[in-house]
Amino acid sequence: MKRIRVGNAVVCEFIVQGSTGKHTLVNVFGGDILVKELPARISLAFYIEIVPDAGMPKDLKLDLILGTKTLATADAEFQYEPGKIGVIVLPQAQITVEEETRIRVVASGTGRARTALVDKSICKGDIPGLS
What's the pLDDT tens digit per position in 47-106? Predict the structure, then answer.
């Protein structure tokens, strides 16, 4: 089964819809998501580009997964245009993390394999720039 093709996938703390189809991504996580201590309550937002191909389903199911627990499920409907990227924005979620784990956004659709669009570690560690 074909996988869903992903362009850019960015995890940050907050996303704002701007003018002319632009988005502002605030406090982007460039690598692992580091927290000073556990448990921690963190704000996460997701900006994900889907690269459509022939036969791409217009309906996708999205799961937000922390470790092995599904935190949320959403249905997304797209109107793809040939040669154009489809964008999924999950603007902000408050998540409580009890232990070091992974956060994932997984998508599936008719005729497509479940595909991890985002997969990041959440770890306890020193946050660069903070003393």
Answer: 999 999 888 888 999 999 999 999 999 998 878 877 789 899 998 999 999 999 999 999
* CATH code, 63: 2.60.40
Q: Quick check: is 101 in a domain?
A: yes
- Phi, psi of 36, deg, nearest 5: -70, -40
The beta strands (E) that lie in the chain are given as 6-12, 14-17, 23-26, 33-35, 40-50, 59-66, 69-77, 86-97, 101-109, 112-124
Q: Which two tokens stand for residue 106?
A: 């997984």
Number of domains, the chain: 1
pTM: 0.91
Q: Decide if 130 is inside a domain.
A: no
